[in-house]
Amino acid sequence: MSTEHTVQEMDGRLRELRAENLKLNTALNNMSQGLCMYDADSRLVLCNRRYLEVMNLPAEFAVPGRPLQDMIARRRATGVLSGEPEQASADIVAGIAAGKTLAHIVETGDGRLVSVVNQPISGGGWVATFDDITDQRRVERERDRNQTFLNTVIDNVPATIFVQDARDGKYLLINRAGEKYLGISRERLIGRTARELFSGAFADMVEERERQFLETREKQFFDETVVDIPDVGRRVITTTRVPIADDDGALRFILGVVDDVTDRRRAQDAERHNAEIVTATITSMADAVLVTNENGQVIVANPAAKRFFGDRPDVGSQDWARAYQLFLSDDTTPFPPAETPIARAIRGESIDNLEIVVRPTAASRGAHLIANGRPLRDPTGALKGAVVVYRDVTEAKDTERQLRQSQKMDAIGQLTGGIAHDFNNILTVITGTIEILAGAVADQPEFAAIARMIDQAADRGAELTRHLLAFARKQSLRPSETDVNALITDTTNLLRASLGEHIEIEAIVGEGVWPALVDRSQLTTALLNLAVNARDAMVNGGKLTLESGNTCLDESCAATQGDVRPGSYVMIAVSDNGSGIPAAIRDKVFEPFFTTKGPGKGTGLGLSMVYGFVKQSGGYVKIYSEEGHGTTVRIYLPRATAPAAEEADAPSTELTGGCETILVVEDDALVRKYVTAQLQSLGYSTLEAGNAAEALAIADGVARFELLFTDIIMPGSMNGRELADEVARRRSALKVLFTSGYTENALLEHGRLPSEVLLLAKPYRKSELARMLRRALETNVCSSAA
Question: How far is CA 116 from its chain centroid?
Answer without folding.
Answer: 62
